[in-house]
Amino acid sequence: MSEETKFDQEVQSAEVSQEESMANVTIIKKGDIVTGKVIKVDADQAVVDVGYKYDGIVSVRELSSVQLDNAEEIVQVGQEIELKVLTIDDNKEKLVLSKRAIDSEKSWEKLAADMENKTILEAKVAEVVKGGLVVDVGLRGFVPASMVERTFVEDFSDYKGRTLRLRVKEMDREKNKVILSQKDVLDEELETKKQETISKLSVGQELMGTVQRLTQFGAFVDIGGVDGLVHISEMAWHHVEHASEVVKEGDQVRVQVLKLDPANERISLSIKATQPGPWESVKNKINIGDIVTGTVKRLVQFGAFIEVAPGVEGLVHISQIAHRHIATPFEVLKEGQEVQVKVLDMNPGEKRISLSIKETEEAPAREPRPERERAPKRESVSHEELQGLNLTLGERFGDKLSKFK
Questions:
Q1: Which stretches does DSSP call E strand in 310-362?
Q2: Residue 291 · residue 300 · CB < 8 Å
Q3: Other Cβ atoms closer than 10 A to 233
Q4: Whole-model pTM?
Q5: Element (H, E) at 142
Q6: Which of 61, 261, 279, 365 has its CA 20 to 30 A from that of 231?
Q7: How far apart are CA 67 and CA 60, in angstroms?
């Protein structure tokens, strides 16, 4: 074979190869939707092979509807993605693509269905902005600050990158606005958990709870997704002015269910009912004959009630207050005063203790009684003097009578 013939064959083979290669090149135009494979990722863009005669470029801005610091946050080498052709220029071999345009179109349709079906969806926080959070839901979604949690959040700086569980609240395609809420999801879950908890409760049941908040009239305790009220009268066996005297927020406490009102979601709880009663506590600590220190709690006309242990009051009858006679207890005692008392009798079963103050004090010595003055003795009158007296009187009356004769 001559050199000239060999050359002609090589040229023909190259032309055939070029024609076949051109035949395999995808024909694309502006607005087309293509599938490509990521072959390189830089900080500001991704290079994608879409089967065209040259590779396409997806800028970081066209990778997502939300702001990205780096293209690697959303795509990796080898990943296949669907793209929209924004610009094509064969002369400059420039092919500009967009992932955002495809995602946005699909997302509007999906979010509309999610909103109708009340679907819970997950999305990562892309930005923390004034007034709330920006999330990536295939397009830019906004979660207002008031819809992030059930409680007030002062600082959202650590929320970036977190995944939230959201429900679509509002959509406006013309304004490119999507509002989402995590609070709705949390509220619904809490309500479900609350109903489950209430259905399992029974009066008299004891369980552990967490003190959520204190009020003037008691404390609210979380007993598994539902709050019950421990009234101040049920905080302890002794008198309590404010709940903070017994518990603080966050404390773990044991409570007993006193009342249930499922329809109104009201639960009455007691802390003191789970603890030994004061009369049980003193049963083996105070005995008849003991002298103990107590506090005057109440004064009445017939005596004084003395607290000898938290929640345990005994009566000092008015006759047992002082050795001297007193008209009322107010003469010698006042409320809040500390006194020594002796236990005269006690009956824990009937919650009664008889006490005495005067039995703890030594009786004062009796003062001697002053002697009564005796009347002077009458001098005795003799018989002769008596006769003389009679005679004298007789003479006097005789003279008087003689005048009337």
A1: 312-317, 338-347, 352-356
A2: no
A3: 12
A4: 0.53
A5: strand 140-144
A6: 279
A7: 8
| Structural tokens at position 135 | 């999330």
Q: Any residues with CB less than 8 A from the CB of 91 and at least 6 apart, and which?
A: none
Q: What is the pLDDT of residues 112-170, one digit of tens each?
A: 999 999 999 999 999 999 999 999 898 899 999 999 999 999 999 999 999 999 999 99
Q: What one-letter code names the amino acid at 366?
A: R
Confidence band of 368 (pLDDT split at 50, 70, 90): low
What pLDDT score was predicted for residue 69? 83
Q: What CA–CA distance (Å, rounded) separates 170 from 148?
A: 15
Tokens of residue 109, six digits:
């349709």
Give yes or no for a contact between 219 and 250, defined as CB atoms under 8 angstroms apart: no
Indicate the average pLDDT of the chain. Answer: 86
d(CA 173, CA 404) in angstroms, rounded, equals 151
Rounded to the nearest 10°, the torsion over CA 75, 81, 82, 83 is 50
> Position 149: which residue type?
E
Tell me, rounded to whole angstroms, the distance of Cα 179 from its chain centroid. 29
Question: How does DSSP classify residue 264?
Answer: G
Q: Which residue has the tokens 């269905």?
A: 113
> What's the chain's Rg over C-alpha atoms?
52
Determine contact, residues 167/201, Cβ cutoff 8 Å. no
Pairing of strands 218-222, 206-215: antiparallel
Residues 119 and 77: their CA atoms lie apart, in Å, by 32
pLDDT of residue 404: 47
Nearest CA to 210 out of 232, 227, 191 is that of 227
pLDDT digits (tens, 9 = 90+) for 221-279: 999 889 999 999 999 987 889 999 999 999 999 999 999 998 888 999 999 999 888 88
DSSP tag of 373: P
For the chain, percent of residues with pLDDT exceeding 70: 84
27-43: per-residue pLDDT in tens? 889 999 999 999 999 99
300: left (phi over 0), alpha (psi -120 to 50) or beta: beta
Tokens linked to 78: 């080898």
Q: DSSP secondary-structure letter at 204?
A: T
Alpha carbon separation from 85 to 34, 36, 88 (Å, rounded): 7, 11, 7
- Are 367 and 324 in contact, with CB atoms under 8 Å apart? no
CA distance linking residue 314 with residue 351, whole number of Å: 9
